[in-house]
Amino acid sequence: MVEIDTILIKVASQCNINCSYCYVYNMGDDSWADMPNFISQETIESITKELADLKSAQQHPFAIVLHGGEPLLLGSRRLEFLLHSIRTAIPDSYCISIQTNGMLISGKILNLCSKYKTSISVSLDGPESIHNANRVGRKGERTYSRVIEGINKLKSHPDASFLFAGLLAVIDPTSSPHTIYNFFKDLGAPNVDFLYRDGNHDKLPFGKASFQSTEYGTWLAELLDVYLADQNPIKIRILDDIVRLALGGIGIKEGVGVTDFGIAVIDTDGSVTKNDTLKSSYKGADRFLAPWNIHTHRLIDIFSSREFADSHKLQRPTSLICQTCPELQICGGGMPLHRWKSGSQYDNPSVYCNDQLLIINKVKSILCGIQQCT
């Protein structure tokens, strides 16, 4: 059986905003339209039974991420039923988190999350002009002020040190890394998880001129300079992971390094799917051939199947370029969705290959200089 690290539960198929770069709604896959708007009580009960069985079947703890759409559209009553149900299956030592756009954070929601030991990560791309460029409402309205209002509520809660898990930000390579970093630090974010923009060889990511260009790598290299100059920095996962890997350690999240992460997604109707970011490759890319559903199949059986094991292997690159690259142990080939190309499918280096090499080489150069000094 593939050991599971994260189960991402889609609790809402709808969203209250319309981000231009969203892989769920704006990258060509419209399967969300066939899903129930919200996860049902019956589906929650089926999931929690399976979570309890999975807990007994594997010694390694797994995390639960509540996702969407926008998961807080559930409202406090349904959210409490969901959190109470999950906590009956897994103890407080197992992480539960919510990935939200922050606009629906309320005192009641925060109290529930505190009660059931559920942390909250908020999506925020940067200062107002950067954030509002892509993260807009259904009618194009700006969302920044409401997100900041939600973050301020989160920060002011008595249990904020636990509840506020950090921020998730999509990189805008045309922005100033110095401005972005200082904004997040002034905001009081405990950490920031910067993400590459979704894209592939057929549909180049925003701001990337070609496979050979390094707009995102250059941006991260400048961010690294700002980061290292700060004597009391906030945590930046992608930079911390690359430094850790360059020193011979392991990464803590999918996207760098060669550690495999067991990831499964459960949709609002109970369907079990692959990593949902694959939706940006082509319609149905995240679907298994087997029609697995939490109502009719056991998670343990799904995770023990050949098809699930094959999808799990997709994390590791098959391209000869990657296989023979001296930086594979650090880069890991990047995210599978970034390798997609019609014809050769995922048998390609990441569209961010040269960006990865640039930031990795910069980190190694700095570490080499430090070691020489000591």
Automatic annotation (TrEMBL):
Cofactors that this protein relies on: [4Fe-4S] cluster
Signal peptide: none
Residues of the Radical SAM core domain: 1-250
This protein's record includes keyword Cell membrane: no
Keywords noted in UniProt: 4Fe-4S, Iron, Iron-sulfur, Metal-binding, S-adenosyl-L-methionine
A Pfam entry, by short name: Radical_SAM
InterPro entries: Aldolase_TIM, MoaA_NifB_PqqE_Fe-S-bd_CS, rSAM, rSAM_sf, Sulphatase_maturase_rSAM
Record has Ribosomal protein as a keyword: no
NCBIfam families: rSAM_YhhB
Protein name: Radical SAM protein
